[in-house]
Amino acid sequence: MAVPKRKQSNARTGSRRSHDFKKPVQTVACPDCNKMIQPHTVCPNCGHYMRREVISQDN
Length: 59
Description:
Elements: H1 10-16, E1 28-29, E2 36-37, E3 48-49, E4 52-53
Antiparallel strand pairs: 1-2, 3-4
């Protein structure tokens, strides 16, 4: 069974983990109601996706 010969240094560990941080959620303004939503999703406020009404909002 393979076993590491030496302890991995803190710098090498940090370099490997440099991309593991959480990224902030991307948001864009809905073109119909200007509410901030995630891209490529149906707007929960107005129910539009790519300028088309996908979910009817009955008030």
